[in-house]
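From the thread on structure requests for the teaching lab: each student submitted one protein with a one-line request. Submission from student K.M.:

"Model Rab-GAP TBC domain-containing protein from Umbra pygmaea, C-alpha cells only."
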Amino acid sequence: MVALNLHRIDKDVQRCDRNYYYFTTANLEKLRNIMCSYVWDHLEIGYVQGMCDLLAPLMVILDDECLAYSCFTQLMKRMSQNFPNGVAMDTHFAYMRSLIQILDSELFELMHQNGDYTHFYFCYRWFLLDFKRGMLCHRILTFGCVLN
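Reply posted by the TA:
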C-alpha cells in the first residue's frame, strides 16, 4: 500500500503546476516531502490524485514546508470527505442540482432535455479540488480566500 501511494505521489508531483514559476525542482521536492509526510500520518486515507493540487497554492503563499504541511492537514480535515470514496460528492451534486433548479429553472430544463445532465457529474473536478484546475494560479489564490 505504501509503495502504491509513493508511486501516485511521484506521478502527480511531476504534473503539478509544472508551468508555474514557483515549482522548480527544489520546490517540487518539498511538495513531494509534504505529501509523503501527510500520507504516512494518514495511511487510512492514503494518496488520491488531486491532493497535490490542493497543496500547491499553500506552498506558493506560505513558502515554508512546515507551515504548508500544517495548513494542508487542516484543509484536508474539510476536504477529506471528498477523498477517496467521494461520499460528500453526492451532497455537492444535490446542492448544485437544487440551486440551479431554483435559481435558473430554464437552464435546468434545458440540461434535462438535452441528455439529462442534471446529475451534475461534470462538476466533479470543481468540487474535488475547490475549482483549482479550472483557473489560473494567481486567480486560485484569490478564489481560495473567498471559498474559505
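TA comment: Confidence is low (pLDDT under 50) at residues 143-148. The first helix runs from residue 2 to 15.
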